[in-house]
Automatic annotation (TrEMBL):
<keyword id="KW-0813">Transport</keyword>
<dbReference type="InterPro" id="IPR003593">
    <property type="entry name" value="AAA+_ATPase"/>
</dbReference>
<feature type="domain" description="ABC transporter">
    <location>
        <begin position="4"/>
        <end position="235"/>
    </location>
</feature>
<dbReference type="Pfam" id="PF00005">
    <property type="entry name" value="ABC_tran"/>
</dbReference>
<dbReference type="InterPro" id="IPR027417">
    <property type="entry name" value="P-loop_NTPase"/>
</dbReference>
<dbReference type="InterPro" id="IPR003439">
    <property type="entry name" value="ABC_transporter-like_ATP-bd"/>
</dbReference>
<keyword id="KW-0067">ATP-binding</keyword>
<dbReference type="InterPro" id="IPR051120">
    <property type="entry name" value="ABC_AA/LPS_Transport"/>
</dbReference>
<keyword id="KW-0547">Nucleotide-binding</keyword>
<dbReference type="GO" id="GO:0005524">
    <property type="term" value="F:ATP binding"/>
</dbReference>
<protein>
    <submittedName>
        <fullName>ABC transporter ATP-binding protein</fullName>
    </submittedName>
</protein>
Length: 239
């Protein structure tokens, strides 16, 4: 049974058909990358999965349960988490304080510090725990955001362009972080432009174009697909 599945998912904004009969399924333990030109509908699909948009038609299943009618907080309670493109960290608070805010109501006080230390080590931010989040490098801010998204140990992690604006070194380090998470069992759906990152982490790749699933397969299948290359012509993939 897939952990997350969309069935004939449609979303229209007025006359704009942004998500068009999307069928997507991720098995538990899979790292799945969603690629596609700007405006393909990737972020909209994330918002539908998280419950921030109501689909025009179709269904979303989480671990076999139809969650289409559930609100976002109910989906998060069932084990979904997301890191969006837009930053959500508190810049005037320290790295540790940011994690405390995300975690304090969910862990016993006696275990909170220990859980935060473990997460800081995972994020390679132990030495920066006392720094203001606003003073971190761009890459470290993104890692802190990933940390906040995984702080409650979700079953499904959605990442919208996790490496946007990162150097190749930071991008590679982020890929290693995703691989370590996945080795602990995390299922990940990531929107990504950087094909080196996709090659590093993805078990499977879905190409979205004009709201439809255009192609699906291994990264080797996708890069060899001339039809996929054609939809990127005239588009800049650099962000
Ligand atoms: P991507 O993340 O692949 O770049 P988006 O999902 O952000 O694409 O957007 C897909 C299309 O849907 C774009 O044409 C965008 O302008 C449109 N769109 C996204 N959100 C809304 C909205 N809330 N209202 C109207 N149109 C929207
Ligand atoms: Mg987007």
């Amino acid at each position: 049974m897939p952990l997350i599945e969309t069935r004939a998912l449609n979303k229209r904004f007025g006359g704009l058909h942004v998500t068009n009969n999307v069928d997507l399924a991720l098995e538990t333990g899979e790292v799945h990358c969603l690629i596609g030109p700007n405006g393909a509908g990737k972020s909209t699909l994330f918002r539908l999965i998280l419950g921030e948009h109501t689909p025009s038609s179709g269904a979303i299943l989480f671990a076999g349960e139809d969650i289409t009618a559930l609100k976002s907080f109910q989906r998060i309670r069932r084990g979904m988490s997301v890191k969006f493109q837009v930053p959500g960290i508190f810049k005037a608070l320290s790295v540790r304080q940011n994690l405390e805010i995300a975690m304090q109501h969910h862990y016993e006080p006696a275990h909170l510090a220990e859980e935060i230390d473990r997460l800081l080590a995972f994020l390679k931010l132990t030495a920066d725990a006392g720094r203001l989040a606003g003073n971190l490098s761009h890459g470290q801010k993104q890692w802190l955001e990933i940390g906040m998204a995984i702080s409650l140990k979700p079953r499904l992690l959605l990442l919208d362009e996790p490496t946007a604006g990162m150097s190749p070194e930071e991008t590679h380090a982020t890929g290693e972080m995703i691989q370590r998470l996945n080795a602990e069992g995390m299922t990940v759906l990531a929107v990504e432009h950087d094909m080196a990152f996709v090659r590093q982490v993805a078990h499977k790749v879905t190409v979205l174009h004009l709201g439809k699933v255009f192609a699906q397969g291994s990264i080797d299948d996708i890069v060899a697909n001339e039809d996929v290359a054609a939809i990127y012509l005239g588009q800049t993939t650099a962000h």
